[in-house]
Amino acid sequence: MALSVPGATGCWGRVQMAALITFRGTIMRYATGVGLAVLATCLWSLHGLIFRQIDSAEAWAVLFWRSVGMVPVIAGFVMWRARGRVIAACTAMGGAGVVGGLGLILAFGGAIYAFQSTTIANAVFLFSASPFLTALLAWAVLGERVRRRTWVSIAVAMFGIVVMVQGGLAGGALPGNIAALISAVGFAVFTVILRQSALADPMPIVLLGGVLSALAGFAMTSVTGAALLVPWADVAWSMGMGAVTLAGGMVLYTIGSRVVPAAELTLISLLEVMLAPLLVWLVLGETASHATLIGGVFVLGAVLMNATGQPRATPVAR
Fold this sequence. Notes:
Blueprint: E1 3-4, H1 10-16, E2 22-23, E3 26-27, H2 30-44, H3 47-51, H4 59-81, H5 86-92, H6 94-117, H7 120-127, H8 130-142, H9 148-165, H10 174-194, H11 203-224, H12 232-256, H13 262-269, H14 271-284, H15 290-308, E4 316-317
Antiparallel strand pairs: 1-4, 2-3
Helix pairs in contact: 2-12, 2-14, 4-11, 4-12, 6-10, 6-11, 7-9, 7-10, 8-10, 8-13, 9-15, 10-13, 14-15
């Protein structure tokens, strides 16, 4: 039995044909993909709470142990998807998969270095460039045109982030600012590679990114002289973060990417910017400024505005 979508032509035809993409035999629609991406962002927003529990481990040690916790979970998921043929699945991703894995390590490593080297406000503001960069890359590489509503939503989200961080915006350290922008570029590259229809299963890309991140964390602790053997409590928190929130979020985000355009995916990911400080405020009592609350409303509104304007497609069996 074949499925088709009436009037599925042109750019929006490709979006509507997303209803034909299946996951283990189940048809996935746009709304499902959006829901998975939102759940992924909710998981990632817990990282701020977890980082508060880590006592003495420095950033590169956290990157290493977090990746060590993430890799077995992703490998197990790839094994399940590939019915045990992990090596074949990894080989099938080809050069595009390697590029996506490198993009992921830039996203992880750049973010950590940025938080170390510039103000949090500068880093968050530069991270928010990811939807713009993703939209341009998706147009150039995949031919995905970005809807006017999505551009407006991105602009509204950017305004909300400016409101959230305006009190802390400063010149900052140039290397840290550059690292934050590199992180945004890396996440954009990763997201666009996920959207490539030639990749039947994009999860091996995440696996490669996790392995590369572990190697990068190990190398940077050697270069900087930071301790890799940190207290067991810090190791446990870091590995738990990798195995649960990071790995779980990457699985959900990657599956959702099969039916959600790239620019919209990274727009949804901006919810983390809003949720992370709010969760720290609610759980740990760390003060959230009025600017954070007001800016968060704009970010949430932007994501909702974009999602509610998505055309719906009804697959028809024939």
